[in-house]
Every structure is written in structure tokens, then in C-alpha cells.
Amino acid sequence: MNNLLEVRDLTKHYTSRHGFAGKRVVRAVNGVSFEIAPGEALGLVGESGCGKSTLGRCIARLYNVTSGSVTFDGTDITRLGGRALRPIRAGLQMIFQDPYASLNPRRRVGEIIAEPLHVHHRGNKAAMTARVASLLSDVGLGPEALTRFPHEFSGGQRQRIGIARALALDPKLIIADEPVSALDVSVQAQIVNLLADLQRDRGLAYLFIAHDLGVVRQIADRVAVMYLGGIVEIGPVASVFGSPAHPYTRALLDAVPVADPALTHRDRIRLAGDPPNPANPPSGCAFHPRCAWATAECRTVKPLLRTLADGRETACHHPLTARVEPADR
Amino acid sequence: MTEVKQRPAQGYWALALRKLMRNRSAMISVLVLVLIVLSCLSAPWYAKYVSHTNPFQSNLSGTIMRHGHAVEVLGAADNPLKLGIEPIGPSGRLGPYMLGADQQGRDVAARLLYGGQNSLLISSIAAIITLILAGLTGIIAGFFGGFIDAAITWALDALWAFPVFLLAISLSVVLIAHGLDIGPLRLDASSLALPISIIGIIYVPYVARPIRATVLTLRQSEFVLAAIGIGASPWRIVWRDILPNVISTIIVFAPLIIALNLLTEAALSFLSIGVQAPAASWGTIIHDGESLIYTRPLVAIAPGLLIVVTVIALNILGDGLRDALDPRAKLRL
Fold it and tell me: Between chains, do B4 and A141 touch, taking CB under 8 Å as contact?
């Protein structure tokens, strides 16, 4: 087994109670499987509310999993808790979306970055101080940041502090939950470059959650597209983004604004309507109510991920790569 | 990207203190409160050197010299039938019976100072009890959730559902009638510990609920998730990440709860179920002044004024603390 991370049929359900009327189950993540090799960056894209953050937090075991399994570095961590999980956590760290919420406002930056070292008893005080200083310089901050508070930094600087904290334990996998979506565009590029450099220098693997396809294209080797709690397409970035097989992937790509109107292709597909309520998902293919190519089969039979000729997988009865466009569009 | 603003790093508390110092009304309140506390602390000295009376002993037949001739401390009432008695009125200058005497001929000014000691002591210690209990229950309920949260919330709701004064009155009646035995500890009916514990308990839900709500939000915040992701133990997270972020809420509550306690203590003592005679509190002095309200209104008005001034000062200080520590919070009592 040479995969760093293996996720099998991962499911996360939320139960909301409505008084005495009964329970409603929201299927935030519904039977997701994928794997990440050491040093590989997997992008995870999808619109808001499709369950990508929940998936990331389930893998990091910030949330308990409803069913399925998460295997990290050969260890099944799905049901591990407390003390048993602690050594595993060192290898699997998270970077969060909101750099204003992910740092405790009452603690100094030095303490924040040293916190993982304290929790895992890495070295004595002097060794920790040296380690924190070198982490700060790795993420492009000077040692004067040590004694300052998070509120004294800009969004990009704060995200660097969050990255330094994630790096402190020398993890093998970093789950980055929309790490740049809260930042200015100019700062986004700097952070993405930093993450790419760190991946190259340290052999890090990433699960890179984003809704910005451009960022994913830049950093990811493979990409998984999520829709309503399930993966609808997964494969190398070049083939998935180059010739999407799933109509939803195609719609996502077509939704990316293009600076030059002459370059937009005529036959863009636009998504109609809102994503369905995960508490009450459509029958068959979850995407069929918004899909221009939906057939009777799509309305009744749930498509499973299957491998196409070029090695990518897609969950569609009628992958786009295998047929012509509908005539009426 | 690497440059950092070259201004000395200012801690949260240092910033808050500076903000509070710039708040003029809060500083005036602090001054007023310090004056009141210092005056109350000087009570023994006042009784010995200024009023020359024992404020805990009746002085039914004494006389003092005033305007060159002897005056009875408890004179005959000034009505046609000469029925009843009329305590000596305020002298208006520093000395014996500056604010007059009560029905037992005791110096009201000296009793006010001693009574203030008790009132302030009870309110402050009860507030400390309230804040510690509320902090513990609120943090534990909000952080651990599930069954623990349900049990604590239920208990707080049950306490909350009692009408505050009815609860205090019934507790007081039982405890003050019989005292309380806790193992080797024997509290008798006149102990201040009884009103302190009663008042300290009844307002716990008042504070615990907003703390629980704050902790619930913090529990979902990304920096707590980050701490979980690091592998920090729950107690470490409570201590390092939760507590520093709710302590400001707790501190903001402190003056407001002291003010509330002061009013509760006065009400209980007025109903003779708080501080027990011969000890005094502002509430008992109002009670003493009740029957003199037409002839010697100052006996009831003076402690009432002190309560009002102290409560207003505490509330203004509470507002100032909130602005300095927790500007987004909307809590108000």
C-alpha cells in the first residue's frame, strides 16, 4: 500500500431534530472514495455547500465520521480518538480558510506556532524557540513577528502564520481548506506560490480544497469535483479541466469568467437553478435536475464512478467525452 | 510581505486598560467607588473618634450636648399627645449624630459605614461566587456539549425558573431559622456566609447562559478546530483557547453582578432575612428608618442614596469595562 491517504465510502450525516416531528438527515458527505499518494496534490473543487469543507474536516478527524473509513499512512484513523489519534495528527495538519478566525486573538504569534511543539513535546525550550524562528523564516516572516499578536498582521501574513503552525510538526499531508479564498487576489498568488514551494522542498502532499479553479490548476496534480456530497469526476488536472467528462465539471469550467470576450466559446453551458437541498437529494443522479443531457436513466439510476479510457473516473451515465452535444443548444 | 509594523506589541489587556483609562465617566465611577469603600473601611475609626458611640448598642436614655444644652437622644414625639418617641435629628456637622439617631438611639452615620462594609462585602463575595460558578458551568456546558450540556442547562433553567426573590426568601427563611451544618462546619443564623451563599447562587444562570453561548461559538471557531487538529487535549484547549476569550465577558459581568447583588442584599435585609441584627447593612438601616419616614426621613434616605450612587457607579464602570474589553458584546443588565 503506497498511498498516503485512502478514503473509502466516507459518509458524514448531520441529524437535525424538528421538535417532536422527527429527524431530518442532511447528507453532507455521501460515500466519497479517493486516495492521495505521498507528495501529491489533489485539488477538491465544487460550489459552496457541496460538502468539501466537511470532507476535509472529517479526514482531519475534526469531525466524527458517520461511516466509511479514512486510512492515513497505513493506519485506519476512522475510529481513533483522543490520545491514540495524537501521534497521527502530527502527520496530518490543516490550514484554514479564514486567517482572521484561525488564530487565537489572545495569544502571541510565537506561542501560536509553538503550540503544536508543546502538545507533542518536541524538544526543550531553546530548541522550540529556534524551530519557531526557522518556521517563521520558511513562510517569509521575520523574527520580530514572534512577540506580536495576530491583529497586528494583514490577512496574507496571518495565513503565513497559519501555514507555519501547520508545518511545525513536519506533516506529510496538509489539508488546505480554501486557504486563499479570503485573501486579496495579489496576496493569493503569493500564498499559492509559497504552498507550491513548500510542497517541492518538503515533499508535502496536499488536499487542496478550493472553489477557484485557477488556483487548483496551478497547484494540483489531480483534481476531484464534488457535487452535493459526492465526487462526480476525479482525474489528472490536465484531462479533467482540458476535456471535462461530467456535465457539472463542464459547467464549473464554463462559469469561470474570461477576460477577453472573444475567447469565450459559444456553447457555454450555464447552470440553471440552485444546488438541491442535501437533506432531500434528487433521485438517481443528483445533478439531473440541472443537467441539459439528463435522460430517463439519470432520473432513476444513481451513476457510480467508473474509469474512462484516459484513466480518469466520472460518475455519469453519459460522459461528455463520449458523445456530441445536444442539438437544441 | 516580511515587514512588520515597528510599534511595540501591545497585549490585549494593556490595550483594554488604556481604553478604560481614557473613559472619563468610568474613571469618575472608579473614584466614587474607591471613596465609598475607603469610607466604609474607616467605620471603626469613625465610631471611636467622631461619633463616640457604639453603633451596635441601644442608647435609649442618653443625652448629648448640642448648641450648649443637653438634648435627649430619644426625645418625646412632637405631637399634641406626646405619644411615642422621636430620635435626635441630624446635627449637620462632623461629630456625634451627624445624621441623627435611629429608634434605638444609635448613630446612623456610624451604622451606615459599618452597614456599607457588610453590604459591599456580601455583594462582592457573592459576585465572585457567582462568576466562578457561572464560568465553570458555562464553559463546561458549552465546550463539552451533549449530555453534560443538557444536564447543566436543565439545572440552570430550573434555578432560573424560580422567582429570584421568592427563592432567596425561602432559602433565607430556612437557613436563617436553623443555621446550616456542613460536616464540621457550623454556620449560625447570624453568619454573613448565609446571605452571601444565597445571593451568590441565585444569579448564576444569569451569567452562565451568555458564557455558554459564547463558548458554543468559540467551540466552532477555526482556532479551536486548529487546536483540535494539533492534538491538544480538551483541558488544554479550555485553558489556552476558550478561557482567555471568555474571561473578558466574565470581567464585564463583575460590576454589574455586584450592583445586582447590592440591590438583592438590600431587599433581603429590608425584609429582615439578610443581615441579622445587631449587625447592619444598608438594607437593614432602610428597614430601621421605615417607621421614622415622616419624622426622620434621613435614616431611610441616606442608605438608599448610598445604594443608588454605588449601583449607578458600578453600572457605569460595567459599561466602560464592556467598551474596553468586549466592544461587540451587547450584554446589559
Answer: yes
**CA distance to partner chain A, nearest, from residue B199 (Å):** 32
Tens of pLDDT, residues B79-90: 666 666 777 777
Mean pLDDT to the nearest integer, A245-273: 77
Instruction: Give the closest-approach CA distance of B231 to chain A in angstroms.
Output: 5
pTM over 0.80: yes
Helix (H) or strand (E) holding B281: none
CB contact under 8 A, A147 and B225: no
ipTM for the predicted complex comes to 0.88
Where in A18-60 does DSSP place strands (E)?
23-36, 41-45
Distance CA B195, CA A164 (A): 53
Contact A60 B232 (CB under 8 A): no
Which structural domains are found in chain A, ordered by start?
A: 5-322 (3.40.50.300)
What are the φ/ψ torsions at residue A16 (nearest 5 degrees)? -115, 135
Render B230-255 in DSSP notation, one character per residue.
Answer: HT--HHHHIIIIIHHHHHHHHHHHHH
Query: Which residue out of A115, A121, A141 would a mutagenesis test of the B interface target, given it has the greatest number of B Cβ atoms within 10 Å?
Result: A115
Tell me whether residues A90 and B231 touch, CB distance under 8 A. yes
Beta bridge partners of A283: none
For chain B, say whether A72 makes contact (Cβ under 8 Å): no
Lowest mean pLDDT among A146-150, A201-205, B46-50, B302-306: B46-50
A326 pLDDT band, cuts 50/70/90, is very low
CATH number of B15-41+98-329: 1.10.3720.10
- Name the range with the highest mean pLDDT among A269-278, B36-45, B62-71: B36-45
